[in-house]
Amino acid sequence: MKKLRQTIIIAALIFSALHITARASSAIQSSITDADGYACMGDDKSRKQTEQAALTDAKKNAVDRMATYIKSETKVEDFVVQKDLVEAYQNATVKIVQEIEKNWYKDPNSGDCFKIRIKAEVIPDEKAMEKAARTKDVTDNPAAPLKVQLWTDKQAYKQSEKVRIYLKGNKPFYARVLYRDAAGHLLQLLPNPFRNDNYFNGGVVYEIPSGNDRFDLEVTPPFGQEDIVLYTGTAPLGDISLETQGDVYRVVSKPTDLPLLSRGLKIQKKDGEKQTRPSEFSEEKLSIRTGK
């Protein structure tokens, strides 16, 4: 486990050359939205087939809603890039985050019908998103889909060296930063007991540890691969189970449950809106190596 020292580090926000060392081993951009689906039995569908048809309809509506949202909300100067982004969502895949509501009802004209409301994660076409992300117009544009860059000052660290983590988003975002050391210990670095910040401004480079943090990430045995996992969203992230461990939190929730729990975004309606707005989500993982 990394040695968590009782010190406060006041850190300068550095970008420039450090940005070049960003090496995210994996990244997922997606959006979370609510969607309804409907289907009626008729003469050609059983109850089970009707329920499946309603779920398929809800997934289609989630994709359509996100494609419309991206088209209306994304403002980039390059028309080709904007076209790539819209097509990426039109060709998206859908994962169910939560089945919010489902029930059978009687329709006066169609008979027995089924309705389902889901919270869905709409995952755009990866190749199209990678193509669009190559342009500065997307990575730094607050009117583009949420993109949070994650990097460290180095890729490999020796014993007693300190790991420094950097974040920068193209628009305001909520974040959770986890650290898994070579021994498999999983800690939440941010928010922590002394730095409750989980909301970050776009266009600003943030360093961890810094400010009110009372820990260092000092390299100690055992050595090997260590992972930084970052969950971000334009709405507050879902809750996970934590316990205080010194100046940080120990993650109690099962690691396999963390992606789904974090995707349980607390999406709310804004004044004057009839339904909740989609929320953008991103999951990043950065791996580093430690040794003597």
Compact description:
The protein contains five helices and 14 strands.
Tell me the radius of gyration. Answer: 22 Å
Assign the CATH class of the largest domain.
Answer: Mainly Beta
Sheet with most strands: 11 strands, mixed
Number of strands: 14
CATH topology of the largest domain: the name is Immunoglobulin-like
Mean pLDDT: 86
Which stretches are poorly predicted, pLDDT < 50 over at least 5 residues? 4-24
CATH architecture annotation of the largest domain: Sandwich
Shape: globular
Tell me the β content. Answer: 35-45%
Instruction: Please count the helical segments.
Output: 5
Derived structural class: alpha+beta
Helix content: 10-25%
Distance between the termini: 15 Å
Question: How would you sum up this structure, described in words?
Answer:
The structure is a single chain. The protein is of the alpha+beta class and 292 residues long. It folds into two domains: 169 residues, Immunoglobulin-like; 96 residues, Dodecin subunit-like. It is built from five helices and 14 strands. Strands 1, 2, 3, 5, 7, 8, 9, 11, 12, 13 and 14 form an eleven-stranded mixed beta sheet that branches. A hairpin with a 2-residue loop joins strand 12 and strand 13. Helix 1 packs antiparallel against helix 2 and helix 2 packs antiparallel against helix 3. The longest helix has 27 residues. It is globular, with a radius of gyration of 22 Å. The two termini are 15 Å apart. About 7% of the residues have low confidence.
